[in-house]
Amino acid sequence: MYDIVFISYQEPDADENYAKLKARFPLAKRIHGVKGIHQAHIAAAKKCFTNMFWIVDGDAHIVDEFNFDYEVPNHQLDHVHVWRARNAVNALVYGYGGVKLFPRQMTLDMDISKPDMTTSISRKFKAVQELANITAFNTDPFNTWKGAFRECCKLASHVIDRQKDVETEKRLNTWCTRGKTNPFGEYAIRGAIEGKAYGEKHKHSPDDLRKINDFDWLMEQFND
Length: 224
Prior knowledge:
The protein is of the alpha/beta class.
């Protein structure tokens, strides 16, 4: 019913993940190498012809039970929909890295100044309580650290609209303490701790928070 777009940038397993997606859903499209998270999603929207469109991240492994067959009610065509994903490092299950369903025109018109891309499209949000994928971001040291740093910065700085404090603290604690024995788990914990500290320090500085969407800047922080 809606176009499916796979967005990848530098994920080591992106080609393999896209091939698996295409095998099940042959009409899926791909956007690759567009610099900037907001810009990549705008490019994805431009490639679509349906009023809503699916987004699959480059590190997502779609579970067998998920079929992209959801139909949006007319009164929710201006909502951002986010499905649940299981974190490959710490086993958290929530919207981090989850499959998303976006309104096309609102994506084209999004506010690119906000650090959290998903909540920059619409203030109307629906969390769909169905598991869609595994977020397998732990493919190498940098990508693992980067994923944890960005997410925990956003959690700690409270830039995500409608986040709940108790739930946020539980997630931050899990990110910062669990999964060390999983592949590249130590980099996830390091990234989480450093991202949390950065988010808390700069929570009142939008300019500093926007830096987490600059992958060159993130590489510099990782190397430091």
